[in-house]
C-alpha cells in the first residue's frame, strides 16, 4: 500500500556548499563541540540538553568510559542540535550539499551509517544533594547510555523510537561539569520498532538514526512527582458541567519514610492531601469530584475544532512538598471535550465532537525527511491546513514532538496519530510488508511505546484517536498489549484497530477503508460509492501526482531533469518515490495528454498540470462533502494522501516543500469554503453545501454553460434557497443531459449570492460532452484504469485575454503576537479583454524583487476565473520579513492570460 507517507537553513539554501566526499569515504569533519547545558537546582526543573557533539564510532578509538567522561576533547566532532539525526547534523555542518535538489542525496555514502555513532553532551550542576534523573525518548534505533564514564543502560533497554526511560543518576553526578553520552545503533525500520519512509520519499541514507526528542535532566527532592494528568468527563449532551479527576504518582527516592503534601490547582480549584511513603515506595494518588466538589466545573469552557468553536485550555499545577520545602512540581495543559467514533448503520466510523457529527476532511502529515524540528515552519503548515478548510491531520508513524500537538490544540486542528504500516510495526500481521517477525523483546518494546505515547498525548484535545494498526490490524497478543497500556494511561479517545477495512480480535471492525487510489483517476471517480469514492471513511487517498509550481520545480531539479519530466513520462523520477509502483508519471502523463493535449514545453506541462490538479482535488473533497448527509452509505471522512511532503516531491502533496501553492492547494481551498456551490460529475447536479454552523437563507444559485470562447449556451437560476448548517447540502438545480449547441469542451460557471445580492461562492468547471470512462473490473489497490478520457483539448483554442490589476500593501499595526510583523497585500483583478472569452484560472503570486515567491502566504482566494466586465478583490497575508527588504510585487498569469508583474507597494 501507499504507506503514510521546514523551511530550514540546512538542506534548502542556495548558498555554496562543500565538496561531497567520495563514496565510501569518511565525511570531512569540521572542529565543533556541543554547548554545555546549565541545569538549575530548582526542585521540579526539567532542563533539555541543548545539543551534542557527534561522531562515527569508526573514527573514535577511545573507550566508552573515556568518551563519556567530563573533559574529553571531542576534537573534530560535529555539532548537533538537541533533536538531531546523524545526517541532519552533517547537513547543518555543510558536509553535503542540499539533498533536496536533483539526485544529490545519492552522493551521500550510506556505508557511513552502518556503524554506531556517538552523541555526547555536557551539563553543569551546582548542588548534588538534590536528586538528578535523566529522562529520554526518541532514540533511533537503540543506544548504550553513559554518564560520567559509567554505563547506565544498554541497547537492550533503550530501544525503539517511542519508548521513554528515566534513570536516577544522583550517585554519578558531581558539582561542575557532567557528561552524558549515547552510542546510537544504526536504524533499520524492517528490523526495529522505529520509523521508516516506505514509498513516501527517497529514504535518507542514515535511516534517521539519532536522537529526535529532548533528553531532559530533572531535579527533585526526596519525593518525585510523575504521571500527573487530568481525566475529564464532559456531561453530554448538555455540556453543562465537567468532572475533573486529577491523578499522579508519588515516588519516594530516599531510604527513609517520608510524608509529603501534594497540593495543586486545576481550573482554579485548589485541592491537596498528605501522603506518607515508605522508603522507595511509589503510590498512585487521585483527586475526584466526590471528594473535592470544586473539581466539578459548572459551565465549563469546552474545546472545539476550528470552524466549530473556540479552543480554550485549562492548566493543572501540582507541587509535592516535604517539610515545607518543594520537592517536585508538575504542570499540564489540557482541554475539555467529548469525542466519540461509533460505527454507523453502514459500518463506517463516524466521529462526533461534543455531540456533533463531523465529516473528517483531512490530510496525511509528513515531518521533514531528516526529522528536523522547526516550530515556525510547522505552524506555517498548520495554518495552511486551516486555510484549506481541513479539520484533521493523520500521522501514520512519525509522531511529532509535544510542540506539534500544542500547536494543534491552539489552532483547533484534530489529529489521528497511529503506528505505521508495512515495517516492523506490522511484521507479525502484514506479510506483504517488509517488516520482520516479532521477538519476545519486540512485544515489550511495543507495549512500552504505546504506554509512553498514550501518556504523552492523552491531555491534548486535538488528539481524537489512536490507530493501533494501519494496513493491518494487530493480532490478539499485540492488541492486548496496546489496550492494556492505553487503559493504564487513562486513555479516553477512541482506539481504532486499523486504517484499512479490517478487524482486530478485541476492538472489532475498524470502520475505515483503504481502497486507494494513490495514482491518477479522473474527477468523476470520486462520486461513485465504490472503491475510493465518496462513501464511508477513506483513511488515505488521492489521485497521486501533484506537480508543484514552476518556481519550485526549478528549485528542486536540474534543467536536464526538467526536460525529462515533460518529455519522457516513462522515466523513473527520483522525486516521486522509491517504489516501482510509483516511480514514474506514466499514468498521470497519459491522462494529461489525452484530456488536455500533449504538452508543448515545460511551461505548458506545468500549466496543464495545475489545471488538472485543481479539478481533481476539488472533486475529491466536493464529492465527500456532498455525500456526508446521505441516508444510505454516507461519507464520514476522507484523508487526502498527503497534505504535505517531507522533501521536494512530485506526488502526494497539497502544499510543496517550500510552501508554494498550486492547483491542488486552491482546488482543495475552493471545495472546502464555508458556503459553497458545486457541480456533480455523476448527475450534473448543482448543490449548495453549508459548512457554517448556522443555516443560510435567501440564497440564489445560478449555473451558466459557455463555449470556450465565452458564447453562452445555457443559463438557469434558482432563488429563495435555504440550507441548514453543519455540513448539510441541498441540490438546487440539475443541468440537462443534453444542451443544444454545446461544444465538446465547455465551461460551467456556478454563482451563489446571498439575500443582498453579494457573491458568496463562485466555482468554474471545465467539462466535456465526452466523459471519462472507468474500468472498475480491473481496479488495482492503487488505481482504477481509465479506458477513455474526457476531451478538454478545446481549452487550448481559448483566445488570449488580458486581466488588469491594481494592488496596494499595508503593514499590520497590531502589536499582538499573531499579527506582529505581517503585511497584507490587496489586489483587484478585472477582466480587461474584449469579446466574450473568460480568463480561466487566473493565478496571483506574491513575489519579491528577483521574482522569487514570498512564502508562506495566505490568500482569501486565488486561481479565479473571470468573464468580461467582472472583477474580484483578493488579499494576501504574509510575514513582512519574508520580503527581505524588497517591495512586494504581484505576478499575474493564467490559462489564457499573458504573464505580467505589477508593483504592490
How would you portray this structure in words?
- The protein has 905 residues and is of the alpha+beta class.
- It is 14% helix and 33% strand.
- It has eleven helices and 51 strands.
- The strands form 14 sheets. Strands 1, 3, 4, 6, 9, 10 and 12 form a seven-stranded mixed β-sheet that branches. Strands 28-27-26-34-33 form a five-stranded parallel β-sheet, with helices on one face. A four-stranded antiparallel β-sheet has the order 2-14-7-11.
- A hairpin with a 2-residue loop joins β24 and β25.
- α3 packs parallel to α4.
- The N terminus is likely disordered.
Rg to the nearest angstrom?
Answer: 29 Å
Task: Specify the structural class.
Answer: alpha+beta
Portion in beta strands:
25-35%
- Sketch the major β-sheet: 7 strands, mixed
**Uncertain residue segments:** 1-31
Query: Total number of β-strand segments?
Result: 51
Shape: globular
The helix tally amounts to 11
Instruction: Please state the oligomeric state of the protein chains shown.
Output: single chain
User: Into which percent range does the helicity of residues fall?
Assistant: 10-25%
Integer average pLDDT: 94
Compute the separation of the termini in Å. 49 Å
